Amino acid sequence: MTTINHTGVSHTVFHMLGIPGLEDQHMWISIPFFISYVIALLGNSLLIFIILTKSSLHEPMYLFVCMLAGTDIVLSTCTVPQALAIFWFHAGEISLNRCITQFFIIHCTFISESGILLVMACDRYIAICYPLRYTTILTHALIGKIGVIIFVRSYCTIFPIIFLLKRLTFCQNNIIPHTFCEHIGLAKYACDDIRVNIWYGLFVIVSTIVLDVLLIFVSYVLILCAVFHMPSQDARHKALNTCGSHVCIIILFYGPAIFTTLTQRFGRYIPPHVHILLANICILVPPMLNPIIYGIKTKQIREQVAHMLFAEQKWTACNYC
Questions:
Q1: Strand, coil or helix: what is 130?
Q2: Which domain range does residue 198 map to?
Q3: Which residue from 23, 72, 178, 304 has the least number of CB within 10 angstroms?
């Protein structure tokens, strides 16, 4: 995009429309948004509480699940309440600084979650290929360092975009047809040349998300090779079963994101509200379903949830006696 039509005025306040074309349906659309947010908040909070309070779950796999649940809470809280404010109260006004802050948190959290999924794939590789050395390799100190590295990576890759946006003059428009702020979605309203923004955004995607996907694929190729060399069918089934939850989360996280990217790139004739709904699905669905998947498919977590619920019911019944 070349420099055009500078007016000397740069917008510092923007107005978000929510889902354009479906304004009369906002109240109905808000229902699944609200339900998914409540489920995500309660489910992930319960998951974190159980893992942190039960010493039997202080294993590497569950600590990574705890990290994943924390990022899901941040991702949902950063986006859904604002969308609900737009749907319910038409409160779509947002300052430039707040918009940049929101996009920064969303992108950092998304990249962090991708990094956690990569580490969880490596965790499964070590657990299956080196079971006797599992706890000696993945110590609590190393897990803490991994968590810091994941956060620093996401922070360092997204932080320069703040300056790339701050240098722009937003003199074209201040109406954002979306429920949350995005990098290029905001930059396209500038009258300046945004090619640096586009190329750096592409670099961030390739150096984080694409690289993570490739490394996860390599991890599972190595896992499958190790599994199919196991002599016992029961051992193979048990090894693959330990990866089931993680594979479901990977599909749930990357699937909608890849589909959304493809529709934005090639779906020129798809209505704008469809693109925005798909973008929201990437934000809404994984945080809502992640705790449900781990709660159902992971025996230890399922048993702890059941124990907590039944113990509470028994305590309540004793009070009535």
A1: coil
A2: 13-316
A3: 23
End-to-end Cα spacing for the chain: 74
- Looking at residue 232, the DSSP 8-state letter turns out to be -
**DSSP-derived secondary structure for 167-205:** T----S--EE-SSS--HHHHHTT-SS--HHHHHHHHHHH
CATH number of the domain at 199, please.
Answer: 1.20.1070.10
**Domain presence at residue 120:** yes
Non-local (6+) Cβ contacts of 253 within 8 A are 113, 114, 117, 286
Tell me the per-residue pLDDT of 132-189, one tens digit each, with 9 for 90 and over.
Answer: 899 899 999 999 999 999 999 999 999 999 999 999 999 888 899 999 999 988 998 9
- pLDDT 10s digits, 242-254: 788 889 899 989 9
Region class of 192: left (phi > 0), else alpha (psi between -120 and 50), else beta: beta
Burial 63-84 (b: 16+ CB within 10 A, else e): bbbbbbbbbbbbbbbbbbebbb
